[in-house]
Amino acid sequence: MVASVNYFLGRMGARVLMELSPIWLLVLATFVPAAMLSCAMLYPVRRGAERLGLLDRPGHRKVHTQPTPLGGGIGIWFAVVTTFALGTLAVGVCRMTPSLAAYLPPSIAESLDAIWARTGELWGVLAAATALAVLGLIDDRRGLSPWIRLAVQILVAAAVVFGLGFSLTAFIPVPWLTKCLSVLWIVALINSFNMLDNMDALSGGVAAIVAAMLSVVMLSTPDPESGQPQMLVAAMLLVVSGSLVGFLWHNRPPARIFMGDSGSYLVGFLVAVATLLATYAGYQEQARPHAVFAPLCVMAVPLYDMTTVLWIRIREGRSPFEGDKSHFSHRLVDLGLSKVQAVLTIHLLTLTCGLAAVLLSFVTLPGALLVAGIVLCMLTLIVILESTGWRKDEP
I want to staple 73 with a disulfide (CB 3.0 to 4.6 A). Which of 163, 186, 188, 263 is the partner? Predict the structure, then answer.
């Protein structure tokens, strides 16, 4: 009787797997477990944060009024690494057991060997991400010189770009320049998410939206060689997005835990590397070279925040590394929005830019120019609205 039930359940499970589309199966295997693992892991992290020395106390340049744990990055890292460990194990087992692979959708079963061939690269990326998470954790506990942080970020980024051979699709016929721009891109994204982490659910929400939108771009842009959706890059982005959603359960206002430098470094790095791993042009006969600007489009708001904050600090003669309340979110609050409204406004702007990035994969060059124009008009509108606050501050 038990054997019959097990056989029946096995057949039913196989049927479910066969009927699921590859995209939905990918979401169930990446986003869902990452969200659950991150959410579950952060409960013990919250309880042990003070004992670990991971407590962020209120200060003159901070918006929270109660001591808050800083270990969000631990839960995010645990979810990312554990999900990929389980995924690597599953791919290995399916490759060695054709009877199991037969239950998978054909497009995924045919991609098992290609995915397995890139697991070395994947774990190299995760090792580099772990190094940055540890750097951020040390900074969260003890505080590090900004120059030390920047130097380590550059070294890790250079190791990935020059060691693993990842680089931007920039169409620049000077390899060393493309490599240097790739290192700069990784470091810029790491620090953009770090600087954006200044209000509850802000950086985590923006990063989750960015990763989700980029995963849609990857699933809608076939690889030029295989003609299949870019499953591995999409999987990386979905795992990052899922782990952030699990973290946001604890980080929603009022936050019970912050992401900390460990989390922002980890997330910024993984998103940056995913954009380097991706291919944006698609088939040769359906080439969309302008889709290479999709990462810039979806990252428009975080990059705007980082650029304007650095400009304000340098203009006022202060160190660009000095923390303050000149961030985009703070400026929206100065205009009269509540903190929650400011965060939701930035989430909505990021989602709008993300949808524009998705469109770049489908439209021709004139359509791409219209999409770029929409994004630029939206950013210009933000500048105009902010300028009213600047005039009020003038003597």
Answer: 263
